[in-house]
Write a structure and sequence with these properties.
133 residues; alpha+beta; Heat Shock Protein 90; 5-stranded antiparallel beta sheet; 3 helices; globular
């Protein structure tokens, strides 16, 4: 059983994709915690592809097997590997915290595995294994 969705718009379309993914995961018996985790990762990666990578569309696939939900996102935006790069250090206090810039940390923290490839067709492909609990 595989989930497929084409995001061809901004934040509203990403939200629709999240809702569709949530319904699909719930029908497959995933817990609310697992669904929420997948929604957060989908939102972060899809919006980054659009806002920072210039992607006009993001193709999303998901599958569930052996305790994992694997999300695959593909886009033709600028190359960006979310598996590399230094993440910001946590703020010393809430008052010192800055807004934004923590999305990739959320993706990495929630993922059991995170893989990136730039395909021969000039597409970014991000695969995220999310534990089901």
């Amino acid at each position: 059983m595989t989930f497929r969705y084409r995001i061809a718009g901004g934040a509203a379309e990403v939200s629709a994709a999240q809702s569709a993914l949530a319904a699909w995961m719930e029908a497959a018996g995933a817990s609310l915690h697992s669904v929420t985790r997948a929604e957060v990762v989908l939102e972060e990666l899809a919006l980054n592809a659009q806002r920072h990578g210039g992607a006009l569309e993001v193709l999303v696939e998901a599958s569930i097997a052996v305790g994992l939900c694997t999300l695959v996102l593909e886009d033709a935006g600028r190359p960006f590997d979310p598996t590399v790069g230094v993440l910001p250090l946590p703020a010393a206090s809430l008052g010192a915290a800055r807004i934004g810039g923590l999305g990739l940390a959320l993706v990495r923290r929630n993922a059991a595995a995170l893989r990136y490839t730039r395909t021969g067709m000039g597409r970014n492909r991000v695969e995220v294994d999310l534990p089901l609990c």
